[in-house]
Amino acid sequence: MLAMLCFVAVVVATLAITRWAARRASGREGFYAANGSISAGQNGLAIAGDFVSAATLLGTTAIYFASGADNVMYLLPFLLGLCLMLAWIAGPLRQLGRFTLGDVVTSRLKSPVLRIYSGVSTITISLFYLVAQLVGAGGLISILFGLPFLAAVIIVGALMAIYVTFGGMIAATWVQVIKAAVLLAAIGLLAVLCLVKAGGLAPIYERAAAAHELGAGLFSLGGLKMDLFSTVSLVAGLALGTMGLPHLLIRAFTVKDAEESRKSVAIGTAIIAVVLAVVFLIIAPATVAFVKGVPAFQDATGGVRGGANMAVVHLASAVGGELLFGAIAAVAFATILAVVAGLTVSIASAASHDIYATLTRKTVADEGHELTVFRMTAIGASVAAVVLAVVLQHENIAVLVAGALVLAASANFPVLFLVIYWRGLTVAGAVAGGLTGLVSALVLLVLGPSVWVKVLGFDTPIFPSEYPTLITMPLAFLTAWLVSRFTADKQAAQSGGLAPSVGR
Amino acid sequence: MPEAPEPTKRRLGRPLLLSLLGSVLVAPVPILASAPKLIPAEFLATVAGVPVLSWLLIALMAALVGVAVLCASTISLSDD
Question: Residues A210, A59: contact at Cβ < 8 Å?
């Protein structure tokens, strides 16, 4: 009953924010970029909120629960990725773009084809990420209310469509900011209660080692038994993919200038680091200590009730009773809602601003049509994500998110980076490089163990690793470089003898 | 929207240096995860009941925040 009340409170609060935002969101500035009115501190919280998603809270604790400290490979690269983003992308992004990544990549190479490619790439990556969040939401609601998974994801899909359709980026940002603040408090409270219940940090580690089949090996690395290619590819994919995540990058457009953008990423990094440290040091081992092998949290097969992704929610029940269980479940639910809202904005803005407006050559005067497409895409994306979430409902959330980051590292990051830093890049080079990264990453992800074996049911994967970034990202860079070299003269001729994008 | 600045105007030294620093800090983690036998036994000893390796990983997170702060404070608009 308490859990139900907490859920209803989250839904009512987020709908109230959406109603408030709907009054302020008029025009593209409001719907796509929150009128550029977000401060560095607020944006830092929103960025932290985007990162501390279902994958972090539920997925990485699930990995620790099963395989130990290897979950750090799903945590650390985000911090490295944010450092790299600060060093290379955060400032130029705000200077070159207005609403979408399409604005940034066409800032120098003015091409409708490139803008459409950017839109397609953004939609693909965001949809992948969206499905991961919905899988988490579906599992959460299922175990709390006994609802079928399908009904649970339909509820979340409907809510995210409402937020974005009516409140646009303003609603998505403020839901995220408020959620991030609540999440920080909830994680802090959960950590303190774990320490109190166990009698300190050391007893948590002693209990965890006693409860887990790995014993003290739980705290070492190597539990996932991945080879060197996979571990390096995973870390590289997460770090570099961070620089290509559309829903994160468009946050740069919600602040007033490049300096604020950079400051907000630094603030976000500090907040994320604190959360990750608490999750890694206290909450993840406490989940093993208090949930592993406890009959109340097991299903008929001896596994964790609701799946390993729900282990941290059971931890809340173990250390704080029904009240904390309801509160943490509601916070996790709010986390998912906030992240999916941001993802839906990135999908809808790419569809309306990059694809629709380019294909129909709409201008500023056609803003109304563009926003109608924005709203319709938000609804369409919700439906598509619900269907895909049902298909992939048994996958680990962190692994699904890693897949989205592989796509971002292979398709978005090379194009963004080369547009900003290489004058020799041509339109053909950018599109060819990006498409090569996108298609090769999608193909290798499908041929890898996550889809080929776990979803499609084959015995052995054709591509042995779940993380192909080490192949797909260099392939994208190489293709972009080669095609640019071969098309440089043609592009120079087309631009009237000038060579604005041709240089060193 | 402002015109895109020429890419050659960007100063690449500091971003490169700070990126290398961050990458070097993180690099041992995937290597050790794929070859746990390389982890020194001392790393699995405990300090205050927590394995040294866990403390090191927390210190690594703190160091990355330091790199982020350095990025934010030493790279300015003029570099963009």
Answer: no
CA–CA separation, A483 vs A415, rounded Å?
Answer: 13
Q: Which residue has the tokens 């994967």?
A: A461
State how far the Cα of B4 lies from the Cα of B7, in Å rounded to an integer: 8
CB-CB under 8 Å, B33 with A226 = yes
Contact between B33 and A231 using a beta-carbon 8 Å cutoff: yes
Nearest Cβ partner for B49 among A205, A232, A258: A205
CA–CA separation, A378 and A169 (whole Å): 12
- Chain A residue whose CA is closest to B32: A221
Among candidates A200, A228, A273 on the partner chain, residue whose Cβ is nearest the Cβ of B62: A273
Could you tell me how far CA A256 lies from the centroid of its own chain? 24
> Which of A60, A64, A79, A265 is the best substitution to test chain B (most B C-beta atoms within 10 A)?
A79
Structure token digits, residue A464: 């042995």
- Tell me the pLDDT of chain A averaged across its residues: 85
Q: Is the pLDDT of residue B1 over 70?
A: no
* Cα distance between residue A88 and residue A92, in whole Å: 8
Tell the residue number behind the tokens 């009512």, with chain if given: A12
Query: Are the C-beta atoms of A78 and A310 separated by less than 8 Å?
Result: no
Which residues are within 8 A (CB) of A41 and not within 5 positions of it... i.e. 6 or more apart?
A264, A267
According to DSSP, the residues that pair with A73 across neighbouring strands are none
Per the CB < 8 A criterion, the answer to whether A211 and A383 are in contact is no
Token couple for A116:
């459409």
Q: Report CA-CA distances (Å) from A152 to A18, A57, A141, A345, A455.
A: 21, 19, 6, 21, 21
Q: What tokens does A282 get?
A: 């206290």
Looking at residue A368, what is its pLDDT? 76
In terms of Cα–Cα distance, which of A472, A418, A491 is closest to A236?
Answer: A472
Residue B11 — φ and ψ, nearest 5°?
Answer: -85, 125
Ranges A66-70, A156-160, B55-59, most confident: B55-59
Whether residue A32 has pLDDT greater than 70: yes
Nearest by Cα to A73 from A267, A227, A296, A301: A227
Helices marked H in A199-283: 201-211, 228-242, 246-249, 258-278
**Which residues, at least 6 apart from B13, have a Cβ–Cβ distance to it below 8 Å?**
none
What is the pTM for the complete model shown?
A: 0.86
Q: What is the pLDDT of residue A499?
A: 38
Burial of B13 (0-12, 13-18, 19+ CB in 10 A): exposed
Nearest CA in chain A to B36: A222
